[in-house]
Amino acid sequence: MELKKPISLEEQVQRLIFHKMDVADNDLAKHVLSETNYYRFTGYALQFRDKENPDDYTSGTTFEDVLRLIQFDNNLRRILKPYLDTVELYARSQIAYGFAMEKCQIPPHDQHYESSNFFNKKSHDSIISSSLKREKENNKDAQFVIHHSEKYEGKMPIWVIVELISFTNLSKLYSAMYYAEQNAIAKNMGTSRETLKNHLHCLANLRNKVAHTGRLYNVAYNPPVKLGSKYLNRNNGIRSNTLFAYLTALLRRIPREEDKTEFVKDIEMTLKLYSDYIQLPLIGFPVNYKQLLIDAIK
Fold it and tell me: Which of 5, 56, 238, 282 has the fewest CB atoms nearer than 10 Å to its CB?
């Protein structure tokens, strides 16, 4: 089967008009599409599809309506990045410390290289043998990589390794550990082993979306977040595969209370700024979202 033929920016604008979208400024539309990509733009326009004629947009849908949703996402990504950075750094520190204190006390203190010290040996070997090797090569000019190559024949303590591997592989490394190490780390981070494993997975995915300009608005999130049966029973409208659920997980994993408070303020401010354009149900936000986020701080 042949793929779709590429079309010019002008043709892209005309296609939007053909499908009943109001475009007031063709030059602006071409400029936005040149920066955004037609495929991404129409993804944000999904909520405006006509139910009777899904190829067309509902009457009154404007190019600016869709542009505002893109701007909402851009703004939200800028807000989320420092909080995700904080959680990622905290997780790196806690996982390295927790495993080292449990497993690396006996010389030569390199037990993290031994798959026998991990429950999921295949996952451990993939991270240490493949991913770590690749990251060391990508960062071969970094002073700490050179230092460990020259002095320790390339071996590194686990607290150095966690500075090299991705957040995704950090999550996998934690999941590969035996329950004893998982429990010790989770306890230090104020949660349970199963919850932390799930939250690390979810937040690594969210971090990748934010870092690589993935769409946050009106998409399903995977895996679903573990928020606890008691929480979900009290708030039975919460869906675990939504942006709201993922932001709740992020909020719970932020280590400092003052940052949690600022996070809630930032989210509320952004939602108010774009309240004329976004639909809260499409990002899983209930009407009482602010109170639920405040409650999650406690």
Answer: 5
